[in-house]
Amino acid sequence: MSDETVDSSVRVRAARALGDWGSTRLLPDLECIAQQDADEHVRRAARKALEQIRQRTAGK
Question: Which domain of life is it from (predicted)?
Answer without folding.
Answer: Bacteria
